[in-house]
Amino acid sequence: MLRLRAVCPPESSKAALDVLQEHVGATHVVLFPGAAIQPAGDVIEADVAREAADEILAVLCSLGIDHTGGITLDVIDTVMSDAADLAERDAPGEAADAVVWEELVSRTGEESRLNATYLAFLIIACLLAAVGVITDSPITIVGAMVVGPEFGPLAAIAVGLVRGRWDLVRRASLALGLGFVVAIAITAGGTWLGWTAGLFDASAIVGDHQVDFVYEVGPWSLIVAVLAGAAGMLSMTSAKSAALVGVFISVTTVPAAGYIAVAAILGEWQKVLDSAGQLTINLLGIVVAASAVLMVRRSRRFANDAVRPLSPG
Question: Where are the transmembrane segments (predicted)?
Fold first, then answer.
């Protein structure tokens, strides 16, 4: 279940309480009159079944509470209550299938920001990928896949496209584009230092190697990217985050970026182009699949809303 807290002006409190008291998916409704200081108003709390959260949030936002006050959601790990069990039983749908759209927008929006932490993870991942390419180590390549933070911006682009949030699309695209450019440039610099120090030579990527799959583009590259994008978005929208690890280690976005840097320094330009193609196919495949999953989820939500209309007051 989720803990919902709303700070709202007194004139909106009755309508908000009516929504929470009338919805079968909400319970443990509490009112603290005049408890909020900034912004001033009443504080309302309730425990909400995950499958009912999106519907309730939509009505509370229609009251303008997100503008005149504020609404927050927190995950509750343990609830011991017959009333909570009843709310989860009577709420329409299943918790694992529920999408809390505002939560998704907030989460992907945060993960799509171009900041020092995001760049640090992407740079480290690309450097690991370069080491894996040079040492012909698939294990190191897998490690680079896990460290890479690129799925956050990719998911944000998908959410922005489906929800019409073009600000989110622009911000995530900037994080991806500039992030990969910076990471590849720094990785190329590190590769050049290793090459001039005599740590390796062109034979590192000439001939057959175990990690050649990184730059070998084919139909399976797109198939894997599409499956990974679908699985990743299903994981994010159903709160089953454990599946994201499988997504990270199934696509060759970061390894392809690392290979671009190594191949460029060693003058293997065909492999640079092949790696760039691999990177592009993976990025596009993930975004398309993630967007398709969201569109299916959104259509199901609209169908459910048509059957169960909920209005404030």
Answer: 116-135, 141-162, 174-197, 217-236, 243-267, 279-296
**88, part of any domain:** yes
Q: Are both 92 and 162 inside the same structural domain?
A: no
How much of the chain exceeds pLDDT 90, in percent? 61
Whole domain around residue 189: which residue ranges? Answer: 104-300
Give residue-wise pLDDT tens across range 219-258: 988 999 999 889 888 888 775 555 566 666 667 899 999 9
Answer yes or no: do 61 and 151 share one domain. no
Q: Return the HEC string of the chain.
A: CEEEEEEECHHHHHHHHHHHHHCCCEEEEEEEEEEEECCEEEEEEEEECHHHHHHHHHHHHHCCHHHHCEEEEEECCCCCCHHHHHHHHHCCCCHHHCCCHHHHHHHHHHHCCCCHHHHHHHHHHHHHHHHHHHHCCHHHHHHHHHHCCCHHHHHHHHHHHHHCCHHHHHHHHHHHHHHHHHHHHHHHHHHHHHHHCCCCCHHHCCCCCHHHHHCCCCHHHHHHHHHHHHHHHHHHHHCCCCHHHHHHCCCCHHHHHHHHHHHHHCCCHHHHHHHHHHHHHHHHHHHHHHHHHHHHHHHHHHHHHHHCCCCCC
Enter the pTM of the model: 0.80
